[in-house]
Amino acid sequence: MVLEIRSFILFLSLFIIPLVSAQQPLYPIPYGALPDERQCRWQEMEMYVLIHFTPTTFENKEWGYGDANPSIFNPHNFDASRIVNAVKAGGFKGVILVAKHHDGFCLWPTKTTPYNISQSPWKNGRGDMVKEFEKATRDAGLRFGIYCSPWDRNASCYGAPDYVKIYREQLRELYSRYGELFITWFDGANGGDGYYGGAKETRTIDRATYYKWDTIWQMVRQMQPSAVIFSDVGDVRWVGNEEGHVAETSWATFTPEPLDGKTITAPGEMKYWKSPEGTRNGKYWEPAECDVPLRPGWFYHPADDNKVKTASDLFDLYCKSVGRGACLDLGLSPDTMGMLHVNNISVLQAFGQLLQQTFAVDLAHKAILRASNTRANNDLFDVKNLVDEDRYSYWATDDTVTCASVELDWSQPVNFNLIRLRENIKLGQRIEKVEVDSWQDNTWIKTVETTSIGANRLIRLPEAITTTKIRIRIVKSPVCITLSDVGVFKESE
Ligand code: FUL
């Protein structure tokens, strides 16, 4: 008998175990384009704001022409920490400051142009608004980023090679004086009419070649290795609209395509209308950022004080951006006093509360979870990983299993309308289709289906349902499943 057992074990170890492990490595093999570390950190932020505040605010315009007198820039009640605290109350994790917009006015005392904050009466010309925002942001525990417009309607040399040197120098100053940045934001709006030192004319540039983007990208990597590059062709893609949403199906991977008749892609020079969806199996990991202002415009206009998006509008946008694997970038605009209008502050607060209350209780934590398959039956890939707080621990299936399900079982009926799914994006974006059933009248009823998952997918049911069981079925994936999170929530009213 003992001999028989021994020979059985020998047989297993000689033939069966090597066979299984030769077929399947311990860990799943990553699939397709992958995010780098800075993209993962950016993704985890989910939401941040973009602040526009320059002499253009005092002119009540959206695009300053570049001729505003710096003397108009005097925000008496400016207090960066008041603004940043409102941002934090809204649940946002970072602040991007527009350090220079298209009007060319620099909010920091730059050496590159006299058209800067030192010429303004604010703090008798001794202030540095970038520094004040940076400090308030870091004091609040948020991350800081910068937008410096490539287009400059003030610079007399805009359009000539000299301007590109100046622009690069401005970036160098910004990258060296304000600590670690999480993002550097490059705008695609470039060239057109402007003041240009008094020339008052239209100047066009070749967007693809003028700025020598390659060398700017290198500078970002050298000077700000933690910063993602926002651009049509950077680490994070522009979503292609300024309405705050990606497409229902949206891939984190993207292959930017040149405009018809062109061969190069550059900021402002690609088929941006392909961006809401991204590219399934695209060449680069380049998830979308959804930018949208809280009010109708990016700059403050008194006439818009009652046209502020509501907390529920913002939640809807949250579901259509963050809930589809993108990040949400909300535009805020201080008024001429240097303050956020009270309507903006109350909306931010209400939105922050709505998020907090909605996601405070994860019903998945109260369920018993069962998977139809677990990779090598190894505890490393157990379904319990779906309900821990780690975005990168995951439930995985065997390599041969690309369709599988997870059942959540509650001892008492639960009521919810949001289901959150996340993949471990460090292994790529894999899942293509998911169906969810709920247990109704002693049978499984298909309740909802969805497509791309990636870093985050919020499935928002049209109405809350009550049930004791749901079954999440991954029905299409080219490779084995590496899901990191299942959450179940009831949207707060
Ligand atoms: C656009 C700019 O032209 C707008 O003025 C604003 O800064 C927005 C965030 O990006 O492309």
User: What structural class do you assign from the helix and strand content?
Assistant: alpha/beta
Identify the strand order in the major beta sheet.
Answer: 7-4-3-2-1-12-11-8
Count of extended strands: 19
Rg, Å, rounded: 26 Å
Q: Which secondary structure elements does this structure contain, and how are they paired or packed?
A:
Blueprint: H1 2-23, H2 37-45, E1 47-51, H3 55-59, H4 80-89, E2 94-100, H5 129-139, E3 143-148, H6 161-177, E4 181-185, E5 192-194, E6 201-203, H7 213-223, E7 228-230, E8 237-238, E9 253-254, E10 284-285, E11 288-293, H8 311-320, E12 327-332, H9 342-360, E13 368-371, E14 395-396, E15 404-423, E16 433-440, E17 443-450, E18 457-476, E19 482-489
Parallel strand pairs: 1-2, 1-12, 2-3, 3-4, 4-7, 8-11, 11-12
Antiparallel strand pairs: 5-6, 9-10, 13-15, 14-19, 15-18, 15-19, 16-17, 16-18
Helix pairs in contact: 4-5, 4-9, 6-7, 8-9
Structure description:
It is a single chain. By secondary structure, this protein is of the alpha/beta class. The protein folds into 2 domains: 37-358, Glycosidases (TIM Barrel); 363-489, Galactose-binding domain-like (Jelly Rolls, Sandwich). The chain contains 9 helices and 19 strands. Helix 4 (80-89) crosses helix 5 (129-139), helix 6 (161-177) runs parallel beside helix 7 (213-223) and helix 8 (311-320) packs across helix 9. Mean pLDDT is 95; it is low at 12-20. The structure holds beta-L-fucopyranose (FUL). Beta-L-fucopyranose is lined by residues 50, 63, 187, 189, 291, 298.
List keywords for this structure.
single chain, 493 residues, alpha/beta, TIM Barrel, Jelly Rolls, 2 domains, eight-stranded parallel sheet, seven-stranded antiparallel sheet, 9 helices, 23% helix, globular, binds beta-L-fucopyranose
